[in-house]
Design goal:
This protein has 2 domains: 4-66, DNA polymerase, domain 1 (Orthogonal Bundle); 71-369, TIM Barrel (Alpha-Beta Barrel), CATH 3.20.20. It is built from 11 helices and 13 strands. The protein has helices at residues 15-24, 30-41, 55-64, 136-150, 177-188, 208-217, 231-237, 246-254, 279-288, 314-326, 360-369, and strands at 8-9, 65-66, 71-77, 83-88, 94-101, 106-109, 113-114, 132-133, 164-167, 200-204, 221-225, 265-271, 294-300. The N and C termini lie far apart (45 Å).
Length: 370
């Protein structure tokens, strides 16, 4: 059997990159579309089963290329059916991915970095230093494993449960914009995985210079981790606020391409007991968001080992929601999912550590977007 390490993994390749490889093999352009269809629409990993490709091409592909998924280290299933995977990358780093199924749909939470660039004080991932950015292949690969697990390729002939993508896992997606954008464009391609941009949401803690570009190039839904209404508090909860304070962040949100009453920006607000959950906080939040097509997701804080924050009481969260509702804002309370397997919002963390310096490429990605 051929060694995978000696072959090129085609997952994560764009149409143009795939075409270049097909050309190298001396094949016609139409083979690119066929291979794309097998990889991204049917989810096939064995070149020999790609029946529409000629035998000679299948042999050439098998000798030089491979279609690899991330390696599964562990799987956990919550009592509420939330499903979490720990994956190991080729360089022995680890990432977590979570699928949250509903009765007729489901959201897949993808990671974009090993660790995180940021250090949000209430977030478990934020306690893990950034090791590196994930590649487009590693981002797409997370989704492909979940599709494998739930048998959601078209050949299985049943409706999808995996209907939505949220870039809300480990890492800050906008600090890995190039690879995240590449992955999402492949995921949205109508002849491949084919998930509509209207079913994709990218969450950011507020990397202001890239918010507009995200809207223009990707057109996906935007979620903003706000969590406070005063700069002095947000500086502690979400330290990137020191660079891009609330006023600057909300100005970028007002200009986000494609936002409207039909497609509102989601503002995520974790409820911390005695910290950001007063009636005056709710009223100020409504004032700050005036004029922005907005929905506020109120997130009961999910505990993790060593954290000192506590979750606000149910009564306090309900009262906070009602104040926002009275001012014309939708403010649903998010039901915690996967707490028993540390899969809930803010609980993800892997064991990888930043034991080496960033590669020059990672340095460049961070300096360009910083």
């Amino acid at each position: 059997m051929l060694d995978n390490k000696s072959r090129i993994n085609l997952i994560g390749y764009s149409r143009q990159e795939l075409k270049a490889e097909i050309t190298k093999l001396g094949e016609k352009d139409f083979r690119t579309k066929q291979l794309w269809h097998w990889m991204y629409h049917k989810g096939e990993t064995d070149f020999n089963k790609m029946s529409s490709l000629g035998k000679s091409l299948r042999k050439k592909l098998d000798s030089s290329y491979v279609i690899l998924r991330p390696k599964i280290v562990t799987e956990q299933l919550s009592k509420d059916t939330t499903h979490k995977w720990l994956f190991r990358t080729e360089d022995n780093n680890e990432i977590e991915t979570v699928f949250i199924p509903e009765e007729d749909r489901g959201a897949l939470c993808l990671s974009s970095q090993v660790g995180c660039t940021l250090t949000c004080s209430f977030c478990h991932t934020g306690t893990q230093k950034l090791v590196r950015n994930l590649s487009a292949a590693e981002i797409i690969g997370q989704m492909m494993v979940v599709r494998d697990a739930y048998g959601e390729w078209p050949s299985n002939g049943h409706d999808r449960k995996l209907t939505n993508i949220v870039m809300m896992g480990m890492g800050e997606p906008l600090y890995n914009f190039e690879q995240v954008a590449k992955a999402l464009k492949i995921i949205m391609d109508e002849e491949g995985i084919s998930i509509s941009r209207r079913r994709i949401t990218l969450s950011t803690s507020g990397v202001v210079p890239l918010i507009e570009r995200c809207g223009e190039e990707l057109g996906v839904g935007l979620a903003v981790s706000l969590h406070a209404v005063r700069d002095e508090l947000r500086d502690i909860l979400v330290p990137i606020n020191k660079k891009y304070p609330i006023k600057v962040l909300l100005k970028a949100c007002r200009k986000y391409p494609g936002s409207s009453n039909a497609r509102r920006i989601t503002f995520e607000y974790v409820m911390l007991n005695g910290i950001n959950d007063s009636a005056s906080d709710a009223k100020e939040l409504a004032r700050l968001l005036e004029g922005i097509p907005a929905k506020i997701n109120l997130i009961p804080f999910n505990k993790w080992p060593g954290v000192e924050y506590e979750c606000s009481s149910h009564h306090t969260i309900k009262q906070f929601s009602e104040i926002l509702n009275e001012r014309g804002l939708s403010a649903p309370i998010r039901m915690p999912r996967g707490r028993d397997i540390m899969a809930a919002c803010g609980q993800l963390k892997s064991e990888s550590q930043a034991i080496r310096k960033y590669s020059e490429r990672d340095k460049l990605n961070i300096s360009v977007t910083n």
